[in-house]
Amino acid sequence: MRKNQRLFLNIAFAIMVAAVIIASLSGCAANDPLANQFKAGDNKNYIAGDGTVTEFSAENRKAAVEWTGTTESGEVISSSQLEGVVTVVNFWYAACLPCRLEAPDLVALAAEYPEAQFIGVNVRDSAETSAAFSKSKQLTWPSIIDKNDGAVMLAFTGIVTPNAVPTTLVVGKDGKVTSRVYGQIDRSILGTLIKTALEE
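Below the sequence we write its predicted structure tokens.
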């Protein structure tokens, strides 16, 4: 009888410990948006940013970023060609829903701020797919095909998080990132960020 009681108590204790662990894990997941996206199981293969905007004050900016890439048309473009020019760098790919939704706003901003150079960085697609998207959305800027080596994304390590797509950066005339938007842009906010960089 004593042996059966001990066995029963051991089983009850094990069940209680398991319940506590499951409850704590559930609580963590409930507060973790990345975990929730993973649990959703919708196979989108990217982490959607939440539109968080970060501005970097002059004293907190990292060193100027140097990068080189080949565009969908086969042209080689690099940061050295854009010295003294405010650059808007948009990380995207064609099957990304927020990328498609923000495209008209980016087109409008490129027209509103012609003194800024827009550059796309396509992280997933072939040159053909990227070019077809650019044509259908009437993008007026080149997109670098970065899927093979991720060289441009790697150059912005610490500023761009891999798989956080879309991400849009405003790069100042000195080549330093002045601001970042994780997720789909808000047209008026990005416009303000571009204007601020142009006025520096």
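Residues 2-31 form one domain.
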